Amino acid sequence: MSVPTTADADLDIEALGVVVRMTIAGLPPSDRDLLGEAWSGARPAHLRSPVATVAPRPHFHFDATVADLTTQVTHAALSARRGRLWMVHAGAIADDRGRVILFSGRSGMGKTTLMSRLAREYAYVSDESVGVTAEGGVVAYRKPLSIIDDVARAKRQLSPRSLGLRDLPDVPLRLHAIVALDRLSDDAPPRLVELPVDEAVAALAPQCSYLGELTAPLQTLIGHIQGTGGALGLRYREAEEVLPLVRALFDTERAALPGAIALNVPLARNNRHRTDVHPFRRTPVQDAVELDGRLALLTRAPDDQTTVHLLDGIGPTLWLAADGASFDELVTAAVETHGAPDEGDARASVRQTLDSLLDVGLLTGPRHSDDHG
User: Fold this and answer.
1) How far is it, in rounded angstroms, from Cα 134 to Cα 320?
2) Strands (E), the chain
3) Is 154 exposed, middle or buried (0-12, 13-18, 19+ CB in 10 A)?
4) How far is CA 268 from CA 64, 264, 297, 319, 322, in A?
5) pLDDT tens track of the chain, all 373 residues?
6) Nearest alpha carbon to residue 138 among 130, 127, 146, 148
7) Rounded distance, CA 2 to CA 23, Å?
8) Contact 322/330 with Cβ under 8 angstroms?
């Protein structure tokens, strides 16, 4: 298949289902050729209008220029797809049937090294960002891989082809499994472990891009986790040791977890007018989901930063009851739901939990209370 071309000074890149154009007229022809080779795995099959244009910044060494252009392309694609895809900082591979395993992890978890090994047997989808549709379809981002050159002791941006990685299958891609990476420092054998949904949310949410732009962000995240049979944790040290686990995971059809659609939690119950001098009230949240006795809340700050809070113990009861309740009413709600504490005083436990909720901005109300609330 021939790749469509634009002007010699332009390089179109397919990233997360959109096209980003590199304008590289200021680079020497040899550097433009090197860029074209590095991005050969991400060229669009058809000419399309770009959603953004990026260009080299002046005074950069060539290797730094390539890395910087990669960052610009990534940010442009993420911005263009915000609110439309669940996007995760992750690597991913696909089998011949188009089933995709997503490996999410913070920087330093070895995603690029792992993908450069696994994608010799399976198709390379990305080592940076993966986009997932509401229906579980996956869109690729086959960017160059940043590999350390042992001779030059510098990172090189290398194409999937130059590393011997496999092309995508000619079938639609669909999410098969979600794996959270946990790099080990000891010699323990690699293993895949089932993650409870709340632990999976805690591991994945910080790696999501523009999560708060989705209409129901927590429901979307949890829906994908449950729809793939629950997230897994991969605890490993060396990429070479992971391949047998991945083969077994592709050989397993994992059924969706019961209750794949998370339940909405009512965000307000303003059916009565309170006259309390110091009532406790919930602050607005963008999404709230119940998880087996725990409560996941997503808040969004004015600077668009999102935070996922996981409440347990008496925290969910107090947050749900704080629709204009007094301190005494919250103590009653906690005792009625959970019983009196085996040790200590219920009022002290409620006060401590309320202070924690106030500290993170999930409630408004007084930060101290007498015996009458």
Assistant:
1) 28
2) 10-15, 18-23, 52-54, 86-94, 99-104, 123-126, 129-132, 138-139, 145-149, 154-158, 174-183, 191-194, 208-209, 232-236, 280-282, 287-291, 294-300, 306-311, 323-325, 363-364
3) exposed
4) 51, 12, 14, 10, 9
5) 445 455 567 999 999 999 999 999 888 999 999 999 999 999 999 999 999 999 998 777 888 888 899 999 999 999 999 999 999 999 999 999 999 999 998 887 889 999 999 999 999 999 999 999 999 999 999 999 988 765 555 678 899 999 999 999 999 999 999 999 998 777 788 999 999 999 999 999 999 999 999 999 999 999 999 999 999 999 998 888 999 999 999 999 888 886 533 445 554 444 444 555 669 999 989 999 988 888 999 998 877 789 999 999 999 999 999 989 999 999 999 999 999 887 778 999 999 999 999 999 999 998 875 444 4
6) 130
7) 21
8) yes
For 249-258, letters b (16+ CB in 10 Å) and e give bbeeeeeeee
Extract the tokens encoding 339. 């019983």
How far is residue 295's CA from residue 360's CA, in Å, rounded to a whole number?
15
Which of these, 36, 34, 31, 77, lies nearest to 54 by C-alpha position?
A: 77
Instruction: Check if the beta carbon of residue 146 is closer than 8 Å to that of residue 157.
Output: yes
Residue 40: CB atoms within 10 Å: 15
- Tell me the β-bridge partners of 215: none
